[in-house]
Design a protein that fits this description.
alpha+beta, about 20% helix, single chain, 5 helices, about 20% strand, about 210 residues
Length: about 210
């Protein structure tokens, strides 16, 4: 029994947001009842007068409902809920594009929301491998982050490695000429190539 006709509007709202959170439509009615019971919006048949009904115009806290869904039906969240509320989430590997031009290798790594001071770029010459690692935070103070109701953006600790060669066949690049910059949420790393006819000659001192 619905204790307050006002909550009919919330039930309609739940029918709209459930498909985005719960994969099985068969679970919708059970979930709706469970959530509304938790918020005191429904009681079992015959118990409608057991305690006073909510006052007209009272509303269900939809942010708490979203948190309820995420904790019960999203297997990827699990213990990451607290991390999300603190501005970070689970580790991830951001997507990358690699361009092989005549003069450079140019790598684009998607890092929306990242600050350059929170990103590190390293080159491993032995492996001919570019390594980018860092962290992306959600903007806002602790109190604001507690109001998080939908967690879709990739935030938290990340690492991405891009190999351009191997130990047996290392990439011929100019390590001293490498550069990186952030452009509209994309990290752009430029690695100049050595000339095709380049031969490294090392001088040996005579003792």
């Amino acid at each position: 029994t619905i204790r307050d006709p006002h909550h009919q509007r919330e039930i309609i709202h739940l029918h709209h947001i459930l498909p985005m959170i719960i994969p099985s439509a068969e679970a919708f009615p059970v979930v709706i009842v469970a959530v509304l019971e938790a918020h005191g919006a429904v009681v079992a048949d015959g118990e409608a007068d057991a305690e006073p009904a909510p006052s007209p115009g009272s509303e269900i806290d939809m942010s708490k409902i979203a948190e309820f869904f995420a904790s019960h039906f999203n297997p990827d969240n699990g213990n990451d809920t607290n991390a999300s509320k603190n501005g970070t989430s689970k580790d991830f590997s951001p997507p990358a594009d690699v361009f092989d031009t005549e003069e450079n290798y140019i790598i684009h790594i998607s890092l929306p929301g990242a600050k350059k001071e929170d990103v590190g770029v390293n080159w491993d010459a032995d492996k001919s491998e570019l390594s980018v690692a860092g962290v992306i935070y959600r903007p806002g103070d602790e109190e604001f982050l507690k109001t998080l109701a939908l967690d879709e953006r990739q935030v938290g600790v990340f690492e991405r490695k891009v190999r351009l060669g191997s130990r047996a066949s290392p990439a011929m690049v100019e390590e001293d000429g490498m550069g990186a910059k952030m452009e509209d949420g994309v990290l752009v790393v430029t690695i100049p190539k050595r000339d095709a006819g380049y031969v490294e000659v090392k001088k040996v001192d005579i003792e």
